[in-house]
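Kindly go through the following sequence and its backbone structure tokens. Advise at your convenience whether the structure tokens fit the sequence:

___
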Amino acid sequence: MTPWLIKTSPGWGEVAYINSFKQDFTKRELLLGWVFSTLKQQHGFALEVAIDGYQKFNVPIFMELKKNTWISIKGSYFKLPIYFINVFLRRVLKR
């Protein structure tokens, strides 16, 4: 068959799974959970881990993590108009 008739497919895929953290975890494990979820830009989950960590251990570092996560979440709101403009332009130019 000719190459223009066959749709190109990726040769690999990537899946990330973050634990739900519903079990009893140590401070260290919750901190690592926050770090990994932040690195994966899963800010909502990072916020949940920070809140859970503060409720379980009452350590101020979790409040700092919560503040930092809120800053990341609020900062992403500024990217929304750009995202919607890009989606709109792609749809318009596709026609």
Observations:
- The mean pLDDT is 87.
- The longest helix spans residues 60-76.
- The chain is about 65% helix and 0% strand.
